[in-house]
Amino acid sequence: MSEGTYVGAIDQGTTGTRFMVFDHGGGVVASAYEKHEQYYPEPGWVEHDPMEIWENTKSVIADALDSAGIDATRLDAIGVTNQRETTLFWDADTHRPIMRAIVWQDRRTTDRIEGLETNGKAETIQAKTGLEPDAYFSATKAEWILDNADPIKLQRSRPQDIRERAADGEVRFGTIDSWLIENLTGNHITDVTNASRTMLFNIHEMDWDDELLEEFRVPRAALPEVRPSSDENLYGTTDADGFLGAEIPVAGALGDQQAALFGQTCFDPGDAKNTYGTGSFFLLNTGEEAVESDHGLLTTIGFQRSGEPVQYALEGSIFVTGAAIEWLEDVELLDNAMESETVARSVDSTDGVYLVPAFTGLGAPHWDGRARGTIVGMTRGTERAHIVRAALESIAYQTRDVAEAMEADAGIDISSLQVDGGAVKNNFLCQLQANIVGTDIVRPEVDETTALGSAYAAGLAVGYWDDPEKLRDNWRIDREFTPDEDASVDGRYERWSEAVERSRDWAREA
């Protein structure tokens, strides 16, 4: 550990990229952020430009360091955290993507998933991967790209098929972490948490699964090497002649939700957190046991440190929460997200209105890729405030759906839930969440725990921090929200469940 040095974290999310610099106390020293464009080529399709993401990554790193007057040589390590499941392929020689990345929200492969279920393959996939087969995960996205991307034109008599080149190792597959790590270090690597979200990785054998690779026709030669989330052997270093002008170890990576689990110091079985971003993701550490879910949750890898056993987690993946607030802005019911609290407080209730934000289907515990966004209960007297409040309540109701499933699977009562992400700045939402779930909601001082978790992973790998247990001392409560004793929510929650049923199986051909 060096005095006067820091650890940096690249937090590459669904809507933008952030770089944060942390000190030994886990305090934020510098931060910079840039949005990237969302592409919607067809209904239900969502894509990102990987080159834009990489250029933005370089830009926010430079901006954050410049703003704090920190030279890159004072970074002891860099960690990476990323939007999970988003899938791309790139040319191994030119490092150019063969097409835009297909984002985790994308639903174009729903028919393929339904075919797997019809053919009786869903149980096998879930047993190997811990995942409920869904278009959310990377496998069917990878298959679609290999089937549909334009052949690469080479100095040969004919363009060569993408799958052929992938089988020769000339085209590489990755999630966004792999894309960034290769651009930073030149090495084709992913970590165990991101691998566990591809639906191609056996979380019990801890290896890419040949049966699944054959099912989705993804060549093993295209896949990255899988490493621990916090890796003492390093993923590599940045190029001294590159944009940073220094050799900095890249030593940690976690999918964004696992990074938040690590950043919230949920190191022990029974520790739980919920992150509110574009979607919401509720994770419960189950230790070295991969707990199978009977209630629509995912069994996933929580994290792994070098030389230590894998820590597993149960996860409830909610596809749309913060994105529901963004939608309110898109349709001009709000001028900005921060206005949502004031508008929601201007009415005493939703006046019977329920909004189910199933814009990209329903995740846990329902898993309905054909569900779509629905508003029920409107009357001539419905005002924008009722719809805004209904959107905020939908975030809390969806979390209760997952919390009840989590308690049933794990056999525990969740008395306290640590929360993070942009939406938890909304005090009204946090209190709603406490009332509707019936548990204390605990908000930390540093709510960007996704970036903090990847910084912790990288810093532990290089000895910047010595002991993960001591990291708990960095975690401080900003505010705690307790359920109102007079809050009557059970009846409204039952009506919410009815509204969910009305949203289901909507996106069918006429």
What is the share of helical residues?
Answer: 25-40%
Strand content: 15-25%
What would the principal axes of the Cα set say about the shape?
Answer: globular
Calculate the mean pLDDT score and round it: 90
Count of runs of 4 or more consecutive helical residues: 16
- Supply Rg: 22 Å
Alpha-carbon distance between the termini? 63 Å
Largest sheet: 7 strands, mixed
Overall structural class, as computed from helix and strand content, comes to alpha+beta
Low-confidence stretches: 153-159
Strand order of the largest sheet: 17-18-16-15-21-22-23
Q: How many β-strand stretches? A: 23
Task: Describe how the helices and strands are arranged.
Layout lengths: L5 E7 L3 E7 L5 E8 L11 E2 L1 H19 L6 E8 L4 E5 L9 E2 L7 H9 L3 H8 L8 H11 L13 H6 L3 E5 H10 L3 E3 H4 L5 E2 L4 E2 L1 H7 L8 E3 L8 E2 L11 E7 H8 L8 E5 L3 E8 L10 E6 L7 E8 L3 H9 L8 H7 L8 E3 L17 E3 L7 H27 L5 E5 L6 H11 L2 E5 L4 H14 L5 H4 L5 E5 L8 H14 L7
Parallel strand pairs: 1-5, 5-14, 9-12, 15-21, 21-22
Antiparallel strand pairs: 1-2, 2-3, 4-7, 6-8, 10-11, 13-14, 15-16, 16-18, 17-18, 19-20, 22-23
Helix pairs in contact: 9-14, 10-12, 11-12, 12-13
